[in-house]
């Protein structure tokens, strides 16, 4: 049995898991940023629509 391979395997597995965790965190952060941007755009569009409606009521 090759002891070197046995010793490096857990490290490789840990590194792989760490890389996967990092990738998941990056993706989650990007998705959260996208959600925030979409919410901000939706609120802005809603606000613009409300202002137009109020202006039409005044006329």
Task: Explain what you see.
It is built from 1 helix and no strands. The chain is mainly α. It has one domain (1-59). The protein is rod-shaped, with a radius of gyration of 26 Å. It starts with a helix and ends with a helix. Residues 49-59 have a biased composition (Basic and acidic residues). Residues 39-48 have a biased composition (Low complexity). Residues 9-31 have a biased composition (Polar residues).
List the helices and strands and how they pair.
Blueprint lengths: L2 H56 L1
Question: Top keywords for this entry?
Answer:
rod-shaped, 1 helix, 59 residues, 95% helix, single chain, mainly alpha
What is shown here, in short?
The protein is mainly α and 59 residues long. Helix content is 95%, strand content 0%.
Percentage of residues in helical conformation: over 70%
Q: How would you describe the shape?
A: rod-shaped
Any idea how many domains? Answer: 1
Please give the count of helices: 1
Structural class: mainly alpha
Mean pLDDT, all residues: 80
Percent range for β-strand residues: under 5%
**What's the total number of strands?**
0
What is the CA–CA distance across the termini? 87 Å
Low-confidence stretches: none
User: Measured on Cα atoms, how large is the radius of gyration?
Assistant: 26 Å
Largest sheet: none
| H-E string | H
């Amino acid at each position: 049995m090759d002891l070197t391979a046995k010793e490096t395997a857990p490290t490789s597995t840990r590194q792989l898991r760490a890389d996967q965790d990092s990738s998941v965190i990056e993706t989650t952060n990007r998705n959260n940023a996208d959600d925030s941007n979409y919410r901000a755009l939706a609120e802005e569009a809603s606000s613009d629509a409300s202002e137009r409606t109020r202006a039409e009521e005044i006329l």
